[in-house]
Amino acid sequence: MLTDLSIAGAAEGLRRREFSAVELVDAHLDGIEALNGRLNAYITVVADQARAAARQADGALAGGDVPVLTGIPLAIKDLFCTQGVRTTAASRILGNFIPPYESTVTANLLREGAVFLGKVNLDEFAMGSSNATSAFGPVVSPWTRGDGASLVPGGSSGGSAAAVAAGLAMGATGTDTGGSIRQPAAFTGIAGIKPTYGRCSRWGTIAFASSLDQAGPLARSVEDCAILLGAMAGYDPKDSTSADRAVPDYRSACTRSLRGVRIGIPKEYRPEGLSPEIEAMWESGIAWLREAGCEIVDVSLPHTKYGLATYYIVAPAEASSNLARYDGVRFGERVAGATLDELYENTRAAGFGAEVQRRVLIGTYVLSSGYYDAYYLRAQKVRALILRDFTEAFEKVDALLTPTAPSAAFALGEKMDDPVQMYLNDIFTVPASMAGVPAMSVPAAVDAKGLPLGLQVIGRPWDEEGVLAVSAAIERAAGFAARPTLRAGVGA
Amino acid sequence: MSLESATIKKIARLARIGLDEAAVTRLQAELNGIVGWVEQLNEVDVSGLAPLASVSGTTLHLRADVVNDGGDREAVLANAPGREGPFFAVPKVVE
Amino acid sequence: MSYVIEGRTGPWEIVVGLEVHAQVVSQAKLFSGAATAFGAEPNTQVSFVDAGFPGMLPVINEYCVAQAVRTGLGLEAQINLVSRFDRKNYFYADLPNGYQISQFEQPIVGTGKILIEAPGMESREIGITRLHLEQDAGKSMHDQDPTRSMIDLNRAGVALMEIVSEPDMRSPQEAAAYLRKLRTILRYLGTCDGNMEEGSMRADVNVSVRRAGEGYRTRCEIKNVNSIRFVSQAIEVEATRQVAVWEDGGVVDQETRLYDPQRGETRSLRTKEDAHDYRYFPDPDLQPLVISKDWVDGLRAELPELPDAKRDRFVAQFGIAPYDASVLVAEQANAAYFETVAAGRNGKLAAAWVTGELFAALNRLGVGIEASPVKAADLGALLDLIADQTINGRIAKDVFEDMVETGRPPGEIVASRGLRQVTDTGAIDTAVATVLAANGDKVAEYRGGKDKLFGFFVGQVMKAMAGKGNPALVNEALVRALAENV
Ligand SMILES: [Mg+2]
Ligand SMILES: [Zn+2]
């Protein structure tokens, strides 16, 4: 089935004219038609635009040499501004915002010939780990665990993960601030990489926490992630935090030998009460890498346990400022008020959901006079320690291997009344975000209920190639073949 | 440290989020939970450490002083929920 | 002589510090590529960055950084090779992002100084605390509609330099002199046009009062005063108010006030309790700004001669009084004009003509020196005609007026109007004889001891010669004739 192909395989098939880009796009649009009502992965589908782009791709393919993603249908997280196409950040406050510009990351994908199927759901302003905070309703995972409960796809890139896992797109863009690519990838049995901070431009992507936000791809294979990342990444003079570095050939890194590569196993990622299934998967991962020729080294990242608390100060602080622009004056939703301040208060009370309000208020609090030093400044200092942990570990090893998340996907409604319980989902993904280093989740096993579990590979700054090489080795060894219950052409 | 409802109202005011009493009560419990939890950072010895604001380690690139943006008023105003001719319009601000 | 406010209970000293917002001269904005030109149609110079659209990011303008460094160098200030941008968070209709990008903890320029001078005042050094770069806000217009305010974002994001002084000024005159001197320096550097009417230079004034020898008392900040005259007035009015508060046993509250020039009073801007919690934090969209010493040295090497150096040179080179020199250097164009006039001539005479006749004429015409009808070379030529005795000083003033009216060169005026002075002693003797003959009574009085009449005879002879007599020769001839025995 066309919707089961990898990006690499589909690109090959398109070049050999085994099928057309229009057929490929139509197969995905059919899948969306059949399943999106249940999964709620897409907020906006641009079928006509996608078909037109596919026709153009077919024309280009007929002409010969074409860019790598020509005709490949992708889903775009609705946090990337897309010119002329409504962009919501899954928030009411953006109303019917139609960006007059294209984000750098999506522009790069278009330049490589990609076809956009639509904009996919997420936690509101990317704030969440379950995709339950979207103003457009939760995304339902295409996986089921037998008790009839609807599972979360993870978040915040939950729509991206669900769409890719269910075959409603060949790949998707995501953004990762504290784990928002890696955790949903793990929950849905696909791969996803957060590159080094500064590798992908943040220009035109709606900001959550500027010092942490990074775009990256989600796809069903490590190689597909490598292909997508190669297209998305690159220096952008419009983003002052973008790195002026050449983008390496990520795809070829996937087949690199791992002989002699030193893999660190951080002891702090084995907290008390870690589920035996997660532990077992981790042990398998260690064994696979050892067999692949890696040297396994025990390392310590002593400030790991403070990562989350640090994150829940730094990210809300930045968010409270980044989200101040949503005030009902220049774009987006406005709720009238007798005075300007009333207009602001009404607009932001109605426009932001509960989790966003919570984080904006926490962020305002930790920056406010009298609390700045105790919370924000202290967190910035602890952040320096977290970075130092990684720097020191990477003096001894080339990459780190950890579980991606402390559990498999949970059901909608579970963990949702206590914000702190929800935040603990990101316990293994947040430290790499705080340090800005690249990290990838790759599916490694299924648990007793048949739900996917992911391993996380963390690399040195700018060494996405190393991360991809290790992840690809795990992928080959794991032979992960489980597919979700709901997917295009099946179970609909 | 525990947040009083007056503190919740003050930060809500700073953040321009209108809250009714029920929301204040709910948020007081939630925010106290979060703030109490993040205070675990008090265990960490941070003496002598410089705060880390950015992980990128690079410095600012400088742009040339060239006019290459702006000049499209319609695009800037097109999404405005309150517009009056060439202006964004808001309820009258009394100074 | 120091300035004091005489209160009911004795004299009070005033303490003034200034925060000046100076709009940077640049083509594009501080963090976007939109234009900065003054007076454009509303919202036509707005990029999505300036309007705070989702996903938009700031990228700093190198020239604005250079302008701040140049200004710092002009203030003999410390240049910080590493500085940082912070966000100042508050909601306002003309602040699109909900924060202003500014420099709070690590400004680009540190401590410096300005030398101020005014008539009747010793020149004094005023300390500069810092200079930082920040974005301007947009403009809210409240008078176009009964129920709504209109927002124009053209100015949003334009680069400002905030220049903060130490509380070193002790009188309204010193504050005015500081602002004039700062404006002069900015204009010399070309970093700000200093136009207060258009708002490209705005002053926030911090005022407190104290008894001689005391430490500082509470200050009030008077926001956004938009002319030098109003700054002086506002200081006087505010200091007087504070004296009254203290003397009535009250306490001055630290607050922000506005100066109302119509009523000649300051009034409190009733600030809400939250107004001062700006929640500054490092802007995560911007890395530290790092500049090299070489780059700074390059800017230093290209600085123009600054007013203090120019004044000292004028004093040394042309022998003119320091105060005249400081008047001449206050505007670069005036100084350049003077230098052209004075080159190779009598510097004192040149200074007297430029600051006297020329400035008076320009004042009368209401034009700047760039539009002077009398070109510097022509004024120089006029001085040459005086020096080589082609005309006398009195005729020179007539010629100058003619130059102002017609723009003709002085040689041409002298020739066409036959104003060349008469040095022919025969003609002078004839005129003297005629005048003495016609005023026999006066001659008798003079000879009887009424010396003062000499001036009368000079005037009559010059009149008889249509003003063209060489004054020295006329004097000689008169002395001789009046001394002759009858
Ligand atoms: Mg200020
Ligand atoms: Zn300022």
UniProtKB/TrEMBL annotation, chain A:
Ranges of residues in domain Amidase: 23-468
Residues the record marks as active site: K77, S156, S180
UniProt xrefs under InterPro entries: Amidase, Amidase_CS, Amidase_dom, AS_sf, GatA
E.C. code: 6.3.5.7
Alphabetized UniProt keyword annotations: ATP-binding, Ligase, Nucleotide-binding, Protein biosynthesis, Transferase
Enzyme superclass (EC): ligase
GO biological process: translation
Any Pfam family matching the protein: Amidase
Catalytic activity: L-glutamyl-tRNA(Gln) + L-glutamine + ATP + H2O = L-glutaminyl-tRNA(Gln) + L-glutamate + ADP + phosphate + H(+)
GO terms under cellular component: glutamyl-tRNA(Gln) amidotransferase complex
Domain of life: Bacteria
UniProt GO molecular function: ATP binding; glutaminyl-tRNA synthase (glutamine-hydrolyzing) activity; transferase activity
Family in the record: Belongs to the amidase family. GatA subfamily.
Protein's job: Allows the formation of correctly charged Gln-tRNA(Gln) through the transamidation of misacylated Glu-tRNA(Gln) in organisms which lack glutaminyl-tRNA synthetase. The reaction takes place in the presence of glutamine and ATP through an activated gamma-phospho-Glu-tRNA(Gln).
NCBIfam families hit by this protein: gatA
Subunit composition and interactions: Heterotrimer of A, B and C subunits.
UniProt protein name: Glutamyl-tRNA(Gln) amidotransferase subunit A
Protein's organism: Endobacter medicaginis
Encoding gene, per UniProt annotation: gatA
From TrEMBL, chain B:
Transmembrane region(s): none
GO biological process: glutaminyl-tRNAGln biosynthesis via transamidation; regulation of translational fidelity; translation
Keyword ATP-binding recorded: yes
Record-level Gene Ontology MF annotations: ATP binding; glutaminyl-tRNA synthase (glutamine-hydrolyzing) activity; transferase activity
Top-level enzyme category: ligase
Family annotation (Pfam families): GatC
UniProtKB keywords: ATP-binding, Ligase, Nucleotide-binding, Protein biosynthesis, Transferase
Catalysed reaction equations from the record: L-glutamyl-tRNA(Gln) + L-glutamine + ATP + H2O = L-glutaminyl-tRNA(Gln) + L-glutamate + ADP + phosphate + H(+); L-aspartyl-tRNA(Asn) + L-glutamine + ATP + H2O = L-asparaginyl-tRNA(Asn) + L-glutamate + ADP + phosphate + 2 H(+)
Enzyme Commission number: 6.3.5.-
Family recorded in the similarity comment: Belongs to the GatC family.
Complex and partners: Heterotrimer of A, B and C subunits.
Role noted for this protein: Allows the formation of correctly charged Asn-tRNA(Asn) or Gln-tRNA(Gln) through the transamidation of misacylated Asp-tRNA(Asn) or Glu-tRNA(Gln) in organisms which lack either or both of asparaginyl-tRNA or glutaminyl-tRNA synthetases. The reaction takes place in the presence of glutamine and ATP through an activated phospho-Asp-tRNA(Asn) or phospho-Glu-tRNA(Gln).
Protein name: Aspartyl/glutamyl-tRNA(Asn/Gln) amidotransferase subunit C
Organism: Endobacter medicaginis
Automatic annotation (TrEMBL), chain C:
Transmembrane helix listed as a keyword: no
Its EC number(s): 6.3.5.-
Domain Asn/Gln amidotransferase: 336-482
Sections of the chain in a coiled coil: none
MF term (GO), any: glutaminyl-tRNA synthase (glutamine-hydrolyzing) activity
Alphabetic keyword roster: ATP-binding, Ligase, Nucleotide-binding, Protein biosynthesis, Transferase
Protein name as it appears in the record: Aspartyl/glutamyl-tRNA(Asn/Gln) amidotransferase subunit B
Enzymatic reactions: L-glutamyl-tRNA(Gln) + L-glutamine + ATP + H2O = L-glutaminyl-tRNA(Gln) + L-glutamate + ADP + phosphate + H(+); L-aspartyl-tRNA(Asn) + L-glutamine + ATP + H2O = L-asparaginyl-tRNA(Asn) + L-glutamate + ADP + phosphate + 2 H(+)
Binding partners and assembly: Heterotrimer of A, B and C subunits.
Record organism: Endobacter medicaginis
Record gene name: gatB
Function recorded in the entry: Allows the formation of correctly charged Asn-tRNA(Asn) or Gln-tRNA(Gln) through the transamidation of misacylated Asp-tRNA(Asn) or Glu-tRNA(Gln) in organisms which lack either or both of asparaginyl-tRNA or glutaminyl-tRNA synthetases. The reaction takes place in the presence of glutamine and ATP through an activated phospho-Asp-tRNA(Asn) or phospho-Glu-tRNA(Gln).
Alphabetical list of InterPro entries matching this protein: Asn/Gln-tRNA_amidoTrfase_suB/E, Asn/Gln-tRNA_Trfase_suB/E_cat, Asn/Gln_amidotransferase, Asn/Gln_tRNA_amidoTrase-B-like, GatB, GatB_C_1, GatB_Yqey_C_2, Gln-tRNA_amidoTrfase_suB_CS
